[in-house]
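Onboarding guide, step 5: your first structure request.
Type a short instruction followed by the sequence, for example:

Predict the 3D structure of this protein.
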Amino acid sequence: MGAGLHSGTPVRMTIHPASAEYGIWFRRTDISVGDALIPAKWDSVVQSPLCTKLRNAAGAEISTVEHVMAALAGCGVQNALIEVDGPEVPILDGSAAPFVDGILARGVRRLALSVWAIEILRPITVSAGEATATLSPSDIFEIEFEIEFDEAAIGHQSKTLNMANGAFVRELCDSRTFCRQSDVEAMRANGLALGGTLANAVVVDGANVLSPGGLRHADEAVRHKMLDALGDLALAGAPILGRYTGNRAGHALTNKLLRALFAQPDAYRTVVCDDHTALRLPGVGVRQADIPAVA
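The system replies with C-alpha coordinates like these:
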Protein backbone atom coordinates (compact mmCIF):
# COMPACT_ATOMS: atom_id res chain seq x y z
CA MET A 1 0.00 0.00 0.00
CA GLY A 2 1.25 3.49 -0.78
CA ALA A 3 0.18 6.89 -2.01
CA GLY A 4 0.51 8.17 -5.54
CA LEU A 5 2.82 11.11 -6.15
CA HIS A 6 0.24 13.14 -8.06
CA SER A 7 -2.94 12.54 -6.07
CA GLY A 8 -1.90 11.34 -2.63
CA THR A 9 -4.67 8.71 -2.84
CA PRO A 10 -3.78 5.33 -1.23
CA VAL A 11 -3.07 2.70 -3.90
CA ARG A 12 -2.55 -1.06 -3.63
CA MET A 13 -0.18 -2.84 -6.00
CA THR A 14 0.63 -6.55 -6.38
CA ILE A 15 3.33 -8.10 -8.60
CA HIS A 16 2.39 -11.58 -9.86
CA PRO A 17 4.74 -14.08 -11.54
CA ALA A 18 4.18 -14.80 -15.23
CA SER A 19 5.23 -17.42 -17.75
CA ALA A 20 8.16 -17.15 -20.14
CA GLU A 21 7.72 -14.66 -23.00
CA TYR A 22 4.71 -13.08 -21.25
CA GLY A 23 6.59 -9.83 -20.82
CA ILE A 24 5.53 -7.21 -18.28
CA TRP A 25 1.97 -5.92 -18.15
CA PHE A 26 0.04 -3.66 -15.81
CA ARG A 27 -3.60 -4.33 -14.98
CA ARG A 28 -5.85 -1.64 -13.52
CA THR A 29 -8.02 -3.59 -11.08
CA ASP A 30 -10.24 -0.55 -10.54
CA ILE A 31 -11.39 -0.62 -14.18
CA SER A 32 -14.40 -2.90 -14.64
CA VAL A 33 -15.41 -1.95 -18.18
CA GLY A 34 -13.09 -2.12 -21.17
CA ASP A 35 -9.49 -3.25 -21.54
CA ALA A 36 -7.62 -2.81 -18.26
CA LEU A 37 -4.35 -4.45 -19.42
CA ILE A 38 -1.55 -2.02 -20.29
CA PRO A 39 1.69 -3.25 -21.88
CA ALA A 40 4.96 -2.07 -20.34
CA LYS A 41 6.42 -1.16 -23.72
CA TRP A 42 8.14 1.90 -25.18
CA ASP A 43 5.40 2.51 -27.75
CA SER A 44 2.73 2.75 -25.03
CA VAL A 45 4.40 5.78 -23.40
CA VAL A 46 2.48 9.06 -23.56
CA GLN A 47 3.75 12.51 -22.66
CA SER A 48 3.46 13.33 -18.97
CA PRO A 49 5.22 15.75 -16.59
CA LEU A 50 7.38 14.31 -13.81
CA CYS A 51 7.05 10.61 -14.65
CA THR A 52 6.60 7.86 -17.23
CA LYS A 53 2.97 7.15 -18.14
CA LEU A 54 1.63 4.24 -20.20
CA ARG A 55 -1.66 4.07 -22.11
CA ASN A 56 -3.29 1.17 -23.94
CA ALA A 57 -5.37 1.35 -27.12
CA ALA A 58 -8.57 1.61 -25.07
CA GLY A 59 -7.30 4.67 -23.20
CA ALA A 60 -6.53 3.01 -19.86
CA GLU A 61 -3.47 4.60 -18.24
CA ILE A 62 -0.94 3.90 -15.51
CA SER A 63 1.65 6.46 -14.46
CA THR A 64 4.89 6.60 -12.45
CA VAL A 65 5.95 3.16 -13.68
CA GLU A 66 9.69 3.91 -13.83
CA HIS A 67 10.69 2.87 -10.31
CA VAL A 68 8.97 -0.53 -10.32
CA MET A 69 10.24 -1.14 -13.86
CA ALA A 70 13.78 -0.38 -12.66
CA ALA A 71 13.30 -2.78 -9.74
CA LEU A 72 12.14 -5.57 -12.04
CA ALA A 73 14.99 -4.99 -14.49
CA GLY A 74 17.55 -4.70 -11.70
CA CYS A 75 16.36 -8.00 -10.22
CA GLY A 76 16.41 -9.74 -13.59
CA VAL A 77 12.62 -10.10 -13.93
CA GLN A 78 11.35 -9.99 -17.51
CA ASN A 79 7.90 -11.55 -17.03
CA ALA A 80 5.32 -10.26 -14.55
CA LEU A 81 1.74 -9.04 -14.17
CA ILE A 82 1.46 -5.93 -11.99
CA GLU A 83 -2.00 -5.22 -10.60
CA VAL A 84 -2.74 -1.68 -9.42
CA ASP A 85 -6.07 -0.44 -8.07
CA GLY A 86 -5.60 3.11 -9.31
CA PRO A 87 -4.08 5.24 -12.06
CA GLU A 88 -0.60 5.44 -10.54
CA VAL A 89 2.05 3.15 -9.09
CA PRO A 90 2.67 3.96 -5.39
CA ILE A 91 5.57 6.37 -4.90
CA LEU A 92 6.52 4.85 -1.49
CA ASP A 93 9.83 6.45 -0.42
CA GLY A 94 10.63 7.83 -3.88
CA SER A 95 13.16 5.11 -4.70
CA ALA A 96 12.99 1.55 -6.05
CA ALA A 97 14.25 -0.09 -2.82
CA PRO A 98 10.82 -1.08 -1.41
CA PHE A 99 9.97 -2.80 -4.70
CA VAL A 100 13.36 -4.57 -4.79
CA ASP A 101 12.91 -5.68 -1.19
CA GLY A 102 9.48 -7.14 -1.95
CA ILE A 103 10.67 -8.93 -5.09
CA LEU A 104 13.74 -10.47 -3.45
CA ALA A 105 11.83 -11.40 -0.29
CA ARG A 106 9.46 -13.56 -2.36
CA GLY A 107 12.20 -14.83 -4.67
CA VAL A 108 12.80 -14.89 -8.41
CA ARG A 109 12.29 -18.08 -10.41
CA ARG A 110 14.49 -18.86 -13.40
CA LEU A 111 12.39 -20.02 -16.37
CA ALA A 112 13.36 -22.79 -18.77
CA LEU A 113 13.54 -20.69 -21.95
CA SER A 114 16.62 -18.72 -23.00
CA VAL A 115 16.86 -14.99 -22.31
CA TRP A 116 16.63 -12.63 -25.27
CA ALA A 117 18.47 -9.32 -25.34
CA ILE A 118 18.66 -6.28 -27.61
CA GLU A 119 22.20 -5.79 -28.86
CA ILE A 120 23.11 -2.25 -29.94
CA LEU A 121 25.02 -2.32 -33.26
CA ARG A 122 25.74 1.37 -33.85
CA PRO A 123 25.35 4.61 -31.87
CA ILE A 124 21.96 6.31 -31.72
CA THR A 125 21.69 9.80 -30.18
CA VAL A 126 18.72 12.06 -29.51
CA SER A 127 18.67 15.53 -27.98
CA ALA A 128 16.38 18.21 -26.61
CA GLY A 129 17.97 21.56 -25.86
CA GLU A 130 21.12 20.90 -23.80
CA ALA A 131 20.06 17.34 -22.96
CA THR A 132 21.29 14.29 -24.88
CA ALA A 133 20.85 10.53 -24.63
CA THR A 134 22.82 7.91 -26.52
CA LEU A 135 22.84 4.14 -26.94
CA SER A 136 26.13 2.75 -28.27
CA PRO A 137 27.61 -0.74 -28.73
CA SER A 138 29.07 -2.53 -25.69
CA ASP A 139 29.45 -6.17 -24.68
CA ILE A 140 27.85 -5.35 -21.33
CA PHE A 141 25.02 -3.11 -20.17
CA GLU A 142 26.45 0.12 -18.82
CA ILE A 143 24.85 3.40 -17.74
CA GLU A 144 26.74 6.69 -17.72
CA PHE A 145 24.98 9.83 -16.54
CA GLU A 146 25.87 13.46 -15.98
CA ILE A 147 23.74 16.24 -14.50
CA GLU A 148 24.23 19.92 -13.74
CA PHE A 149 21.98 21.98 -11.45
CA ASP A 150 22.37 25.51 -10.12
CA GLU A 151 21.44 24.38 -6.62
CA ALA A 152 24.61 23.85 -4.58
CA ALA A 153 23.06 20.81 -2.90
CA ILE A 154 23.19 19.06 -6.29
CA GLY A 155 25.60 20.94 -8.58
CA HIS A 156 27.55 18.86 -11.10
CA GLN A 157 27.42 15.07 -10.69
CA SER A 158 28.46 12.17 -12.93
CA LYS A 159 28.61 8.41 -12.52
CA THR A 160 29.22 5.30 -14.65
CA LEU A 161 28.21 1.76 -13.70
CA ASN A 162 28.51 -1.68 -15.21
CA MET A 163 25.00 -2.93 -14.41
CA ALA A 164 26.04 -6.58 -14.00
CA ASN A 165 26.36 -8.54 -10.75
CA GLY A 166 23.71 -6.75 -8.73
CA ALA A 167 25.11 -3.24 -9.21
CA PHE A 168 21.59 -1.79 -9.38
CA VAL A 169 20.57 -3.27 -6.03
CA ARG A 170 23.78 -2.23 -4.26
CA GLU A 171 24.41 1.16 -5.86
CA LEU A 172 21.18 2.68 -7.19
CA CYS A 173 17.96 1.18 -5.88
CA ASP A 174 17.72 3.29 -2.70
CA SER A 175 18.31 6.66 -4.42
CA ARG A 176 15.21 8.85 -4.27
CA THR A 177 13.62 11.20 -6.73
CA PHE A 178 14.62 14.81 -6.13
CA CYS A 179 13.32 18.28 -6.81
CA ARG A 180 13.75 21.90 -5.83
CA GLN A 181 11.52 23.55 -3.25
CA SER A 182 10.52 26.13 -5.87
CA ASP A 183 9.42 23.29 -8.18
CA VAL A 184 7.28 21.78 -5.42
CA GLU A 185 5.54 25.09 -4.82
CA ALA A 186 4.93 25.63 -8.54
CA MET A 187 3.59 22.11 -9.06
CA ARG A 188 1.22 22.30 -6.11
CA ALA A 189 -0.05 25.66 -7.35
CA ASN A 190 -0.98 23.82 -10.56
CA GLY A 191 -2.57 20.84 -8.80
CA LEU A 192 0.41 18.50 -9.36
CA ALA A 193 2.52 16.42 -6.94
CA LEU A 194 -0.24 16.55 -4.33
CA GLY A 195 1.05 13.27 -2.87
CA GLY A 196 4.64 14.45 -2.73
CA THR A 197 6.17 14.97 0.71
CA LEU A 198 9.62 15.18 2.28
CA ALA A 199 9.21 11.45 3.00
CA ASN A 200 9.12 10.40 -0.67
CA ALA A 201 11.50 12.81 -2.36
CA VAL A 202 14.74 14.67 -1.75
CA VAL A 203 13.80 18.35 -1.69
CA VAL A 204 16.60 20.91 -1.98
CA ASP A 205 16.65 24.66 -1.56
CA GLY A 206 19.95 26.16 -2.66
CA ALA A 207 22.66 24.47 -0.58
CA ASN A 208 20.14 23.00 1.86
CA VAL A 209 18.62 19.51 1.81
CA LEU A 210 15.17 19.84 3.38
CA SER A 211 14.34 16.13 3.61
CA PRO A 212 14.79 14.61 7.11
CA GLY A 213 18.01 12.63 7.39
CA GLY A 214 19.62 14.39 4.45
CA LEU A 215 21.07 12.48 1.50
CA ARG A 216 21.55 8.73 1.33
CA HIS A 217 24.51 9.28 -1.02
CA ALA A 218 26.49 12.44 -1.72
CA ASP A 219 25.58 11.91 -5.40
CA GLU A 220 22.06 10.61 -4.78
CA ALA A 221 20.64 12.84 -7.52
CA VAL A 222 22.66 11.35 -10.38
CA ARG A 223 22.14 7.85 -9.00
CA HIS A 224 18.39 8.40 -9.14
CA LYS A 225 18.65 9.62 -12.73
CA MET A 226 20.42 6.35 -13.53
CA LEU A 227 17.65 4.44 -11.74
CA ASP A 228 15.05 6.25 -13.86
CA ALA A 229 17.02 5.51 -17.02
CA LEU A 230 17.10 1.79 -16.22
CA GLY A 231 13.34 1.77 -15.63
CA ASP A 232 12.62 3.64 -18.86
CA LEU A 233 15.01 1.43 -20.86
CA ALA A 234 13.26 -1.66 -19.47
CA LEU A 235 10.31 -0.62 -21.64
CA ALA A 236 12.37 -1.86 -24.60
CA GLY A 237 10.87 -5.26 -23.76
CA ALA A 238 14.19 -7.08 -23.20
CA PRO A 239 17.54 -6.42 -21.55
CA ILE A 240 19.88 -4.17 -23.52
CA LEU A 241 23.44 -5.07 -24.44
CA GLY A 242 24.92 -1.63 -24.91
CA ARG A 243 25.97 1.57 -23.20
CA TYR A 244 23.43 4.24 -22.29
CA THR A 245 24.89 7.74 -21.91
CA GLY A 246 22.64 10.46 -20.53
CA ASN A 247 23.52 14.12 -20.15
CA ARG A 248 20.73 16.06 -18.40
CA ALA A 249 18.34 13.51 -19.91
CA GLY A 250 14.92 12.63 -18.49
CA HIS A 251 12.01 10.26 -19.04
CA ALA A 252 10.83 11.81 -22.30
CA LEU A 253 14.29 11.83 -23.86
CA THR A 254 15.00 8.21 -22.96
CA ASN A 255 11.70 7.19 -24.55
CA LYS A 256 12.58 9.28 -27.61
CA LEU A 257 15.85 7.35 -27.75
CA LEU A 258 14.05 3.99 -27.76
CA ARG A 259 11.71 5.21 -30.50
CA ALA A 260 14.72 6.30 -32.56
CA LEU A 261 16.42 2.96 -31.99
CA PHE A 262 13.48 0.83 -33.08
CA ALA A 263 12.88 3.08 -36.11
CA GLN A 264 16.31 2.02 -37.43
CA PRO A 265 16.45 -1.79 -37.78
CA ASP A 266 20.14 -1.73 -38.71
CA ALA A 267 21.02 -0.18 -35.33
CA TYR A 268 20.16 -3.25 -33.24
CA ARG A 269 19.46 -6.94 -33.34
CA THR A 270 17.68 -9.34 -31.02
CA VAL A 271 19.95 -12.12 -29.76
CA VAL A 272 19.65 -15.19 -27.58
CA CYS A 273 22.02 -14.82 -24.63
CA ASP A 274 24.48 -17.63 -24.15
CA ASP A 275 25.36 -18.62 -20.60
CA HIS A 276 28.34 -16.26 -20.47
CA THR A 277 26.29 -13.25 -21.63
CA ALA A 278 23.32 -14.10 -19.42
CA LEU A 279 25.55 -14.05 -16.35
CA ARG A 280 26.42 -10.40 -17.08
CA LEU A 281 22.82 -9.15 -17.23
CA PRO A 282 21.34 -7.06 -14.40
CA GLY A 283 19.80 -9.19 -11.68
CA VAL A 284 22.19 -12.13 -11.76
CA GLY A 285 23.41 -12.90 -8.25
CA VAL A 286 21.33 -10.25 -6.46
CA ARG A 287 20.57 -10.83 -2.79
CA GLN A 288 18.16 -9.17 -0.40
CA ALA A 289 21.14 -8.48 1.88
CA ASP A 290 22.62 -6.26 -0.86
CA ILE A 291 19.87 -3.64 -0.44
CA PRO A 292 21.41 -0.64 1.38
CA ALA A 293 20.44 -0.55 5.04
CA VAL A 294 18.82 2.90 4.76
CA ALA A 295 16.04 1.36 2.67
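Each response can be followed by summary notes, for example: The chain is about 20% helix and 25% strand.
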